[in-house]
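From the methods appendix. Each design record in this collection lists the tokenized structure first, followed by the designed amino acid sequence. Records were kept in a plain field format so they could be parsed without special tools. The example shown here is representative of the layout used throughout.

RECORD:
FOLD TOKENS (237 positions):
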């Protein structure tokens, strides 16, 4: 078993002995096998490994979108192993921001409205939510595209809106699944610089699942997964 000996700088999420499998023995498929992992605040962590290694499953468990078959999940300092589904949903909304490969923007809403909806769900007034959404779009360099629909934005611009939406979440954990996979080198660099800023400027824990080796120099930690197990962890920066 791989043992993580990285010094703790503040833990945003922790997995202890986490396993996940589909089906029942003897025909069960083990996707994650006794994974121990700590995700540190203020750092950008890459999860890398071959297709089918368990990276995305691990990300969905960290993001409280999936319960493990066995093991303990902690987010925001709270052990969620025995919590109800409603508790998982509440913690996910409060603590986790997501960025997906295809951005997952709502196609009928403008860039501003896609960000504003997250602030609306937090109970902010319409004026405060609209103002906050504009401020976040300005941070990612898209204030001049606030009234554009996703179909009117490039792939890189859509991902920047998705990052602004993740910023709208108050949580300490930002999870990204292949956010640069369909982007050219210039757009990928812009997106990663913004993700880097979430760790450096906001102190958030940023976890990125990727096959893109171009991203390794920008990471604090690179965690490699093979056959459902963590086989190495190394510093990037």
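DESIGN:
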């Amino acid at each position: 078993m791989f043992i993580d000996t990285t010094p703790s700088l503040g833990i945003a999420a922790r997995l202890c002995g986490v396993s996940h499998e589909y089906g029942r023995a003897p025909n069960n498929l083990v996707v994650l096998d006794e994974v121990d992992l700590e995700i540190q605040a203020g750092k950008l962590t890459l999860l890398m490994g071959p297709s089918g290694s368990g990276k995305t499953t691990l990300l969905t468990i960290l993001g409280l979108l999936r319960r493990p078959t066995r093991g303990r999940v902690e987010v925001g300092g709270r052990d969620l192993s025995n919590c109800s589904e409603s508790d998982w949903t509440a913690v996910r909304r409060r603590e986790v921001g997501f960025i997906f490969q295809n951005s997952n923007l709502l196609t009928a809403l403008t860039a501003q409205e896609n960000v504003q909806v997250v602030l609306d769900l937090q109970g902010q007034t319409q004026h405060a939510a609209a103002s906050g959404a504009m401020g976040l779009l300005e941070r990612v360099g898209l204030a001049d595209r606030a009234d554009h629909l996703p179909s009117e934005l490039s792939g890189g611009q859509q991902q920047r809106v998705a990052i602004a939406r993740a910023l709208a979440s108050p949580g300490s954990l930002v999870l990204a699944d292949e956010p640069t996979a369909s982007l050219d080198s210039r757009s990928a660099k812009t997106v990663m610089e913004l993700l880097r800023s979430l760790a450096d400027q906001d102190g958030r824990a940023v976890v990125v699942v990727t096959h893109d080796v171009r991203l390794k120099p920008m990471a604090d930690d690179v965690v490699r997964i093979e056959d459902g197990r963590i086989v190495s962890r190394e510093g990037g920066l």
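APPENDIX NOTE: The domain at 11-103+174-235 is CATH 3.40.50.300 (Rossmann fold).
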